C-alpha cells in the first residue's frame, strides 16, 4: 500500500493519490510522511479529507506538525485543531514554539483559552497533562432511556462512550456505568439502580507512571481524573497510557545506558544534541573511575611482589560489573512494573544473597581449576583470585539489587543505578577486596 502511494506521489498523479489516501488508515498515512520531504509532506496533507487530516496530524512527529502548521493558512490550522481530540491538541501545543501557540490561542474563545492554559500548566508527567475532557457524563436521576438518548446527542464528539460517568450537581463523581450495562438493562430503571459506586480514580497531579500501573493492575480502558474536591475534570484513555508506557520504557533504557532522556527520535537528533545527552554521565563515570587508579597505586608494592596478580584484574572487574548489572536490571524492571516495592528490600537482599552465593561458588571453583590448569600458577595465587571472585560476585549482586531500591526510596529514577553506575561502584570495591585478600592469603 505504501509503495503504491509513494509511486503516485513521484508520478504526480494527485487525483488518483487523493482517492487512495481516502481509503488508507490514518496511522499508515502518517508512516508514509516519514519518507517524504517537506514539500511533498505539505502536498499530501492538503489532499487529505478534512476529518482524516486531523487523525493523521495526531500521529505525526512534532517536527512534521510544525512544518505543516508553518505552511498552511491560519484558517486551516484552526480547522485541524477543531477536529483534534482535546488531549491530542494539548500534546500538539506543548511541543510547538511560543508564536504558534499564541496564534492558536488568539483564535480561541476566552473559555477555550482558559481551559487550554489550565492543561498546559499541569506538570508534564502528571495525570492532568494526559487526560482529555471529552467524556460522557450522566445524572443518577435519569432513566436508562434518557441516558441513552443523551449519549446519542452528545457522544458524537467524545473520545469514548463505553464508560459513562455519573455526576451530581457540583460535578462530583458518584459512580460509573458501562454502555454495555445501559444497553442490556431495562430502559425504565434509573441510573442510580445500575451504576457502580466502587471505581478507581486518580488525581490531576498523580504521576503518569503510577497511573500506568493502575491500568495494568485493574485492566482499565479508561480512568477518571478528579480534583481535590473529588470533582471530575477529565479521563485518561488506554491509548494515552500506551504512549506513556512507551515513553517511560524509553527513558529507563536511556538512563540505564547512562544518557540523559530525550523525546527526540535518533535520526532527527543532531550530533551535538546526542553528544550533550551522553557527555555528562560519561564525565561523571570517567572521573569516578580515577578511584580505581588510586587503589592500584596504593597497592603498588604488593603488585611488584606478585606481578601475576595484575593479569586477573580485568577478569575480576568484568565479573563484578556483569554480576551487578544482572541484579540491577531485574530489580529496576520489577520496580517499574510494580512487582517490587521499596519495602521489599529485605526480601531482595535475602534472595540476591542466596543467588550470589550459588553463582559465586560455581564461578570460583571453575576459575580455580582453570587457573591451575591453563596458567600454571601457584595454588595460593589461584585460591586468592577465586576467593576474591566469589566475594566480589556476592557483593556485586547484593549491591546491584539494593541500590535501585535505595534510589526509588530517595524519589530518584531507579534506572540511574543500572549498568554503568553499578559497574563503576563494584569495580572499585572488587579491587579493594582483591588486594586485601592477596595480602592475607599470600602473606605479602
Structural domain count: 3
Largest sheet: 3 strands, mixed
| Backbone structural class | mainly alpha
Mean pLDDT: 81
Categorize the overall geometry. elongated
Q: How many H/I helices?
A: 23
Rg from C-alpha positions?
30 Å
> Largest beta sheet: what is the strand line-up?
1-2-3
- Would you give the CATH topology of the largest domain? Tetracycline Repressor, domain 2
The number of E-state strands comes to: 6
Helix content: 55-70%
Quaternary structure annotation: single chain
Low-confidence stretches: none
- CATH architecture level-2 label of the largest domain: Orthogonal Bundle
Say which CATH homologous superfamily of the largest domain is assigned: SLC41 divalent cation transporters, integral membrane domain
Query: What distance separates the N and C termini?
Result: 74 Å
Q: β content, as a range?
A: 5-15%
The level 1 CATH classification of the largest domain is Mainly Alpha
Order of helices and strands: HHHHHHHHHHHEHEEHHEHEEHHHHHHHH
Membrane topology: Multi-pass membrane protein
Keywords: CBS domain, Cell membrane, Magnesium, Membrane, Metal-binding, Transmembrane, Transmembrane helix, Transport
GO molecular function: magnesium ion transmembrane transporter activity; metal ion binding
Protein name: Magnesium transporter MgtE
